[in-house]
Automatic annotation (TrEMBL):
Protein name per its UniProtKB record: Thymidylate kinase
GO biological process, one term: dTDP biosynthetic process
NCBIfam families, sorted: DTMP_kinase
Reactions this protein catalyses: dTMP + ATP = dTDP + ADP
UniProt keywords, alphabetically: ATP-binding, Kinase, Nucleotide biosynthesis, Nucleotide-binding, Transferase
InterPro entries xref list: P-loop_NTPase, Thymidylate_kin-like_dom, Thymidylate_kin_CS, Thymidylate_kinase
MF terms in GO: ATP binding; dTMP kinase activity; nucleoside diphosphate kinase activity
The organism of origin for this protein: Albula glossodonta
Pathway where it operates: Pyrimidine metabolism; dTTP biosynthesis
């Protein structure tokens, strides 16, 4: 590697935990401190695969459960060449949801094992840091009503949360659980500190492979 690579930083958490708010603030802060950083989000609804997913989430189309799981994974894989290129150029990527949402949401459906759900994402670029924004469902409810998209249902989100907890037990990943009930600024400060450490550590390491 000719230059120091960027870090892959993922923000995960239940709906309304503040992921999007914090991703934007983190990218802005990293840039202001002279680092190269860009935001990405999954699903990326701009690609052809992303448009199929978007229509499904908006309930404009129905897709078979295994099929949609594989489309979410394919939506990550189609962006891997670009992600690697950016990381190798020294750009840190701040990503709003990743394979962990993929596994947590599908395995919350009846008949889906964690293992089956993880398989298609094995080998994706491994995050250097996964920030989990932890928020109690009653706190999340105070941040406004759910929208009308598929999965925006309280009971389903509770099962999703349990699946995230299983995934967080994996010691091969750098999980940091953050109390998302804090103020936007307090959360930002905490997230920035973790991210700066991860960026420094990642600089001298090759990009890892997820769940391998
Ligand atoms: P997510 O991307 O996790 O769904 P958002 O960043 O879109 O969450 O935030 C959901 C809502 O909660 C928005 O209205 C946002 O302004 C608000 N919000 C975000 N972070 C906080 C916070 N720390 N405290 C209170 N409200 C917040
Ligand atoms: P937002 O665009 O509001 O984050 O909602 N999801 C996401 C999956 O089921 N599988 C995945 O792989 C990913 C990345 C979570 C997107 C919705 O799609 C769900 C909420």
């Amino acid at each position: 590697m000719s230059c120091r690579r960027g870090a892959l930083i993922v923000l995960e958490g239940v709906d309304k935990a503040g992921k999007t708010t914090q991703c934007k603030k983190l990218v802005q802060a990293l840039k202001e401190s002279g680092r190269q950083a860009e935001m990405m989000r999954f699903p990326d609804r701009t690609t052809k695969i992303g448009q199929l997913i978007s229509a499904y989430l908006e309930k404009k189309s129905n897709l078979e459960d295994h099929t949609v799981h594989l489309l979410f994974s394919a939506n990550r894989w189609e962006l891997v060449p670009l992600m690697k290129q950016k990381l190798e150029q020294g750009i840190s990527l701040v990503v709003d949801r990743y394979a962990f949402s993929g596994v947590a949401f599908t395995s919350a459906k009846p008949g889906f094992s964690l293992d089956w759900c993880m398989n298609p994402d094995v080998g994706l670029p491994k995050p250097d840091l996964v920030l989990f924004l932890q928020l109690h469902p009653t706190e999340a409810a105070q941040r406004g009503e759910f929208g009308t998209e598929r999965y925006e249902v309280g009971d389903f989100q509770k099962i999703v949360m349990q699946k995230f907890e299983l995934l967080m037990k994996d010691p091969s990943l750098n999980w940091q659980v953050i109390d998302a009930a804090k103020s936007i600024e307090d959360l930002h400060a905490e997230i920035k500190t973790h991210s700066e450490t991860a960026i420094t550590v990642a600089e001298n390491q090759p990009i890892g492979e997820l769940w391998k």
